[in-house]
Amino acid sequence: MKKKLVLIGNGMAGVSCIEQLLKLAPNRYDITVFGKEPHPNYNRILLSSVLAGDADMKDIVINDWSWYEENHITLHTGQTVTKIDTKRKLVTSDGGITAPYDELIIATGSLPFMLPLPGADKEGVIAFRDIKDCETMMEAAKQYKKAIVIGGGLLGLEAARGLLNLHMEVTVVHINEYLMNLQLDRTASLLLQQELERQGMKFLLKKNSETILGKKRVTGLRFSDGSEEKADLIVMAVGIRPNVALAKSCGIEINRGIVVNDFLETNVPNVYAVGECVEHRGIAYGLVAPLYEQGAVLAKRLAGVETAGYQGTVVSTKLKVSGVNVFSAGEYKDEPGTRTVRVQDDFEGVYKKAVIRDGKVIGAVLFGDTSDSSRLFAMIRSGEDVSGKEKTVLLGEGGAKPKSGADLVAAMSDDEIVCGCNGVSKGAIVKAIQEKGCSSVNDIKACTKASGSCGGCKPLVADVLTYVLGADGVKTVKEGICGCTTLGRDEVVEAIRSMRLTTSKEVMNVLEWSNPEGCSKCRPALNYYLGMVWPEEHEDERESRFVNERNHANIQKDGTYSVVPRMYGGVTTPKDLKKIAEIAEKYEVPLVKVTGGQRIDLLGVKKEDLPAMWADLDMPSGYAYGKALRTVKTCVGSTFCRFGTQDSIGMGITLEKKFERLNTPAKVKMAVSGCPRNCAEATIKDFGVVAIDGGWELHVGGNGGTKLRGSDLLCKVKTEDEVVEWAGAYLQYYRETGKYNERTSEWLERVGLDTIKAALERKEDREALVERIDKTLSLTKDPWKEIIEQQEQRKTFVPMDEQPAESILK
Amino acid sequence: MKRVHIGNISEIAEKRSRVVRLGALEIAVFKLTGGALKAIENRCPHKAGKLSEGIVCDHHVFCPLHDWKIDLNDGLVQAPDEGCVTSFQVEVDEQSGEMYLHIPEESILAS
Ligand code: SRM
Ligand SMILES: Cc1cc2nc3c(=O)[nH]c(=O)nc-3n(C[C@H](O)[C@H](O)[C@H](O)COP(=O)(O)OP(=O)(O)OC[C@H]3O[C@@H](n4cnc5c(N)ncnc54)[C@H](O)[C@@H]3O)c2cc1C
Ligand code: SF4
Ligand code: FES
C-alpha cells in the first residue's frame, strides 16, 4: 500500500513541492490536493501581467488539469479544508469531502490584509491576490473611471500600472513619504515616483485612510486630515498575513505564521507546512524563490532523500512594471557601521547603490539600469570579501563605461543565479544551450524553467544566449550535428565518404566525438548517413534506431504500439478489410482508426503481440513510424471522376510500390491528384503530382504539418515514366544532401529551389541519381516479414523473463 | 532481498535491453558495450516511458518518449531534468552466463 499524502492549498509553493517529490519518488505516495480556488495551479505572480494585458489567464496556468491526471493526483478544487483531525489523521472540507493522510502538507498561502476601515465591506473594495480579484478589476474598468490603490509597495504599484493599462485614472495612496519604502532608499524611491508620474499615475503620500465613502458601492475615500478623494474602485494592497486559521484551530503552533523547523515540520507529527503561511527562524516570506527552496527541502524529506534542511533565503525583488527597472536586495538602508558605493547619473536616469559592511556587500538598490543585479545578488549571497576593491562592486573592473549584456554575462561566474524564482544558474543555462541545443529563450524555459515564473530575468537569459551563441543571430552560428561534435552535417558526410568510414563507432572515434557512444541525436543520424553513402557495406545499426524504427511500429504514450499496414494509394478490397477487422478482434485492438493518410491504424497493441499480428495480417508495413516514405494519397481521378484528366490512383500506387521502404532524412509524403482541383492535397506534400490535360505537374517541398508550406512547382512532364524518373532523382538528391531530420520543406528553403532544379535538369544527372536510388531500393526488405522470420529478432518482442510475485517470494 | 534467476547474458544484444517482469515490477536489463549489465525499473520518472526502448550510449539511456537522459549506474536523471529511477543489482555467472537480479521483496509486491 502506498502512503497517503494530502496537500491543503493548491498554490505555488505546495504544488511545486509535489512536482519535486514526483521527480524524486514518483510512486511513493497516493496524493490528494485540496484547493479553495476553482482553478488548477497557476502562476500568481503573473496576475500583474494579466492585469496589465501582457498575458492571458490561460497563459499563467502552471499545471493544467491533465497534469494532475497524468500523475494520478486526486484534486478537489473549490473545496476549502475546514478541519484537520490530527489524532485520526483526517482532513475534511466545507463540501464534506474527507481524506485520510499519513503525511499532511499545509500550504494555505497568505491572506491579503484588509484595512479595517468603516465602509471596507462596500461593493468595489477589493484586494489583489487571485484570479477572481483580477477579473473584478477588469470588469470594473469597463464601467468605471476612477480607481484608488491603497499601498505604494510592489503589489500596489503593479496593480496601479495594470489599472492604468485598463484606461482607468489611478491614484496611489501611501502611508509613508516614500514609495516601496520597504525595498528602496529615498533617492531610488523619488526616481521611481517621477517615472510613474510620467506614466500617468497620481500619488497621495503620507496619507492615512480613515473612511470609505459611498452607499452600496464605494464613491470615495476620506483621510485622517479631512481631505477626500473620489473613487469607484478601491484596491487594498497594504500587505499580507500568513493564512493560519486552519492550522491554529487544530493545535498547531503558530506565531506570525505556522512555526516550522529546518525540515518544514510543525510541532505535530506528520504535519508539514510550506509557503507564505510558514514562519521559519522568525521569518515569513512573501516571494516565491524562498518558497520553492522550502518546497524542494520538504520534497526531499518526504522522498527519504538526504537534505541539509532549509537555511533561510536572502531575497531580492524586481518591480514588474514595464519601462521601469528597479531592483533591491538584502539590507539596502544606510545604517551605522555600513558604507556605501553609489552611482547616480541624472542624464541616463540611473541610480545604483551597494551597501557594504565589514568588507562584504550586504544589500543593493538599482534603478534605471538593473543589469548588475544578478552579479550583486550573487555577492550578497556568497558574502565574498570585497575589501580594497569596493569601487569595482558597482563600476566593474573597467570603470564606468557601458557594457553589453553579453559582456556582463561573460563576467558572471557559472554558479551565479540568473533566474531567482527557480534557482537556475548561468552554468545551467549555458549547458542547456550547448548540450540540449536550446537556441531561444523559450527553449531555455522549457529545458531549465529559467524565466518561467515572474519572467523578470528574460533579458538576462537572452544575454546568456548571445554570449554563448554569438551576437549575430542565435541560429546562424555554426552548430555541430549534436552536442557531441562541432562538425556539421556536410563535414561528417564528407569524412564518411573520403575516409571510407562504415560504422558509427568509426565515425565517432575518427572525428573525436566528445561522448564515446554519442547521444540520441547523432546516433540515428550517423546510421542514416552511413546507410545513404554505403548502401551495401553499411550494416544497419538497430541499436542506433529510434524505438519506432527498431520495432517497426509507433510507440504510444502508454508503451503500446500502433500497426498501420500498407494500403497502396488508399485503395483497399473487401477481403483486406475483413482480414483487418478479424485481426483487430482477435487481438482486442482498443482503437481502429482511419488515418489522415488514407489507411487504417490499429492502435494500442501490446509489443509482444506485434509479430504475431503482422504474420496474421500478411500485409507489408505501412512505415507510419519511419523516416521513410509514408503514404501516397490519391484522389479518384479519371477512373471515376467527371473532372479527372489522368489515372491518379494508378500513378499513386506505382509511386508507392516503387519507393516504399526507402530510408530518407525525414519522413516523405506524396500525393497524386487527378486534376488541378487537387482533392489529394498534393501541393502540401514533399512530392506532389497534379494531373493536367496531357501531362503532370510535379510539386516539391510542401508540408502540411507544424509549419505549413505550399509546394513549389518543379516542372511539368508528359508521361508516367517521366514522373517516376523525376521523383526518383529528386528523392535521391534529397537523400544525399538533406540533413537528418530535415523535411524537404526545410531542405528546399535551405538549399534553394534553383539549386535543386539545376541538379535535376540534365537527363544524365537524373539517370545517375535514379541508378543510385535503385541500388538502395533493391536492398530493402519488408521489416515485418523479416522480424517474423528471424527468431533472434522476434524473441526481443517478448519479455526475457516473467514470474508472478508468489513464486519469487515463496 | 531476493536473488532471482532471469535468463542468460546471451539473450541480450550489446547496447540493447530486455524486459523482465517480476510480480508487479517491470525491470529493464541493459547490456552495455563490453558486456556490463545494468538493471533499472522500466519506467521513466517523467511520464512513465519504457526505458527499455531507449537508445543506449555508454552507460546512459535516452528515454524514447521525451529524451530524458538517465545514468544506468545509479538511475539518476541527468540535468537539466531531475529525478531518479530505481536501480537494481545484476549478478552474472562468469562461466555459464546466467544472470540473477537482486531485488527487495517489497518492490515485487508493491504496485
Ligand atoms: C496516425 C496519424 C493521425 C491520424 O490518425 O490520422 C498520425 C499520427 C502521428 N503523427 Fe502525423 N499522423 C498522421 C498524418 C499526418 C499528416 C497528414 C498526412 O500525412 O497527410 C500530417 C501533415 C502533413 C505533413 O507531414 O506534411 C502529419 C504531421 C505530423 C508531424 C509534423 C511534421 C512536420 O514536418 O511538421 C509530426 C511530428 C514529427 O514528425 O516530428 C507527426 C507525428 C505523428 C506521430 C508519429 C507522433 C509520434 O511521433 O509519436 C503520431 C503517431 C500517433 C500514434 O500514437 O500512433 N505528424 N501527420 C496519421 C498517419 C497517416 C498515415 O497513414 O501514415
Ligand atoms: C499580484 C501578485 C504579484 C506577485 N508578484 C511576485 C513577484 O514578482 N515575485 C515573487 O517572488 N512573488 C510575487 N508574488 C507573491 C507570490 O505569488 C507568492 O509568494 C506565492 O504565490 C505564495 O505561494 P503559496 O503557495 O504559499 O500561496 P498561494 O499561491 O496563495 O497558494 C495558497 C492556496 O491555498 C488555498 N487555500 C488557502 N486555504 C485553504 C484551505 N483551507 N483549503 C484549501 N485551499 C486553501 C488558497 O486559495 C491558495 O490558492 C506576487 C503575488 C501577487 C498576488
Ligand atoms: S496531431 Fe498527430 S502528433 Fe498530434 S496528437 Fe494528433 S496524432 Fe499525435
Ligand atoms: S517519459 Fe521519459 S522522457 Fe518523458
Helix content of chain B: under 10%
Looking across the biggest beta sheet of chain A, what order are the strands in? 3-2-1-7-19
Let me know the number of strands of chain A.
37
Q: Outline the biggest β-sheet of chain A.
A: 5 strands, parallel
Assembly state: heterodimer
What structural class do the secondary elements of chain B suggest?
A: mainly beta
Structural class of chain A: alpha/beta
Count, helices of chain A = 28
What would the average pLDDT of chain B be, to the nearest integer?
93
Please identify the top-level CATH class of chain B: Mainly Beta
How many strands appear in the DSSP assignment of chain B? 9
Question: Which residue ranges of chain B are poorly predicted, with pLDDT under 50 across at least 5 consecutive positions?
Answer: none
Instruction: Write the CATH homologous superfamily of chain B.
Output: Rieske [2Fe-2S] iron-sulphur domain
Question: Low-confidence parts of chain A lasting 5 or more residues at pLDDT below 50?
Answer: 398-402
**DSSP helix count of chain B?**
1
Helix content of chain A: 25-40%
Shape of chain A: elongated
